[in-house]
Please model this.
Amino acid sequence: MSRWEPNTVERLQDAAMTLFHERGYSDVTVADIAGRAGLTKRTFFNHFADKREVLFAGSNALEEQVERYILESEAELPAIDIAISALTSAGQTLSNYSEVARLRQDVIASSPELHERSLIKMASLSQVIAAALVARDRHSTEATLVADSAVTVFGTAYAEWVDSPASAFPDLMNKVLTDLKTAIGAASPAARLQQRE
Amino acid sequence: MSRWEPNTVERLQDAAMTLFHERGYSDVTVADIAGRAGLTKRTFFNHFADKREVLFAGSNALEEQVERYILESEAELPAIDIAISALTSAGQTLSNYSEVARLRQDVIASSPELHERSLIKMASLSQVIAAALVARDRHSTEATLVADSAVTVFGTAYAEWVDSPASAFPDLMNKVLTDLKTAIGAASPAARLQQRE
Model:
């Protein structure tokens, strides 16, 4: 293929983030990003399908890591524990990127099309988790419900970590999982009885 | 505005569904849909922003109904009960559309861009629920977790209802909520013990 270019992906990401921050996401072109990184548009498109993808470069690696973790996990653990551990483990590499994380979240929040792409990435992550749990002999309904819940916990914990990057990500995951259990399971006996009638 | 055209939205939806089923989603144009319904492209665009939206015509009404239900609900009920009741109530009108529902699900499953639009609609529904719960004095983290969980339950129950439309939608919602509580460990110890056997 093309000649060797060290850290191409990282250079493109850095250039994109700087430009998005300077000019706003919608006013930056792929040519601008490539130019700032000292690379060509062709090189950009060797690595990313479009301008949006440069903000989601890590998502495939994250999915692969989570999938591998689940496929190698202890089969007899509850599915929710497996899924949360997998996302916690994958998420711990985030701590290397705390400075970029807030900038990235700000850019995503500034653009409906980036917000949509972010939703799609999370849904894709959930599907990967559900499929891996099914491969570990979980029923598909349980796998789907666990996967969606684990991704909800991950998204909430990630947002909290971006706000306070000094917090340990595993602690945030545990806290949000407990919050979730409380939120959907802590109905008073009277209210639950009433609901069943 | 334009002259009165009875059931315009329904005619466009019926025409779209028939054509998508006959030719496949990607081979049908807005002009085809309008033509089949005996209407103009301009009329189509008076009602829908693009070809995808014709499949999601009810989503704004659903959001409004769910929002109103939550804002008018008894303040002291647990948030999860309020959210599930709101979606159950709104979802009950679905039973009038069981024939269309399967066709629609098949069309959505056939196209990545429709699948993405569907995800975005569900995320939007979750945001509406979370905002309405915050307006009812719930903390934003609880509101987000409850909203995401309730929409997960709704999506799963809806898929089960499409597969077996003879089932009562409220029963499916209750069943899936119980499944979710069991799956993430918010159910009673007895239920979890049973699940492991």
User: Anything to note?
Assistant: The radius of gyration of chain A is 20 Å.
